[in-house]
Design brief:
single chain; about 290 residues; Metallo-beta-lactamase, Chain A; six-stranded mixed beta sheet; 15 strands; globular
Length: about 290
């Protein structure tokens, strides 16, 4: 058994995707894969995700899981592309049902769109574990940024999604449908209760202050220096700061295109009679 973690950076969305593998058993999972999307042209592409495919095939890894930490609002998921190319089950936290219900109404998706999570191959419960080769991976529910957030924990590593950012960038916003700053604080403190040397792998980094992009920190570093939730910050104070910051933040550029794809496990809407698929943009809702 040999834990191996390889990061892939999707520059257009500042997203980190990961290949988590048992290198000895040659079994792998991909976490938070990003599809290329040109919003101006309405054009999708798989060049970035193809790098992950080439890595898997080059290492001779079988792909068992394609793991989402939540239904992302800043990029379209490449889960279906990876599944087509390499196989594997697409999974997310069971809170996706709440996200689907909220956005079904926003997009007016109609009675045929199920809000039971059945678009995914598996929905994880809090505390569930699964095996990847010889590795045992645990799932921690991380509601707050969204209601479906999860972290994946294996040995001394945790993949935290948007729950936490690097210490100089703080934490994710909590003002999306189903978001809640108090729940986010509670989720973060579940992570910060892990051993101090636990490595935390970020889903995003925006290179605060012009520094180089970074994708990894530790529980100890977050507890000592996170600008929003370091040791000593109360739940009440955090909620006040988070809500104040969220009120001034713009809507993410790709939220409306991305969510309708990501609640479908990375599938595009079905093509219409002319053979073209269309994304829906609700007007005057944000």
């Amino acid at each position: 058994m040999a834990l191996e973690i390889t990061a892939f950076f999707h520059a257009p969305s500042s997203t980190y995707s990961y290949v988590l593998a048992d290198a000895s058993a040659k079994r792998a999972a991909v976490i938070d894969p990003a599809l290329d999307y040109d919003a101006a042209a309405g054009r999708t592409g798989s060049q970035s995700a193809q790098r992950i495919v080439e890595h898997l095939k080059g290492r001779g890894y079988g792909l068992d899981w394609i793991l989402e930490t939540h239904a992302h609002a800043d990029h379209l998921s490449a889960a279906q592309f990876l599944k087509q190319e390499c196989g594997g089950k697409v999974a997310i936290g069971e809170g996706i049902r709440e996200v689907q219900a909220a956005f079904k109404q926003l997009y007016n998706l109609g009675k045929d769109f199920a809000t039971d999570g059945s678009q995914f191959d598996h929905l994880f419960k809090d505390g569930e574990r699964f095996v990847l080769g010889g590795l045992s991976v645990g799932v921690m529910a991380m509601p707050g940024h969204t209601s479906d957030g999860v972290a994946y924990v294996v040995e001394d590593a945790a993949f935290v999604g948007d729950t936490l950012f690097m210490p100089d960038s703080g934490t994710a916003r909590a003002d999306f449908p189903g978001g809640d700053a108090g729940r986010l604080y509670d989720s973060i403190h579940r992570l910060l209760a892990l051993p101090e040397d636990t490595r935390l792998f970020m889903c995003h980094d925006y290179a605060a202050g012009g520094r180089e992009h970074r994708n990894q920190t530790t529980v100890g570093e977050e507890r000592a220096a996170n600008i929003h939730v370091k040791d000593g910050v109360s739940r009440e104070d955090y909620v006040k700061v988070r809500q104040g910051r969220d009120a001034a933040l713009p809507v993410p550029a790709l939220l409306l295109p991305a969510i309708q794809v990501n609640i479908r496990a990375g599938r595009m809407p079905e093509p219409e009679a002319n053979g073209t698929a269309y994304l829906k943009i609700p007007l005057d809702k944000f």
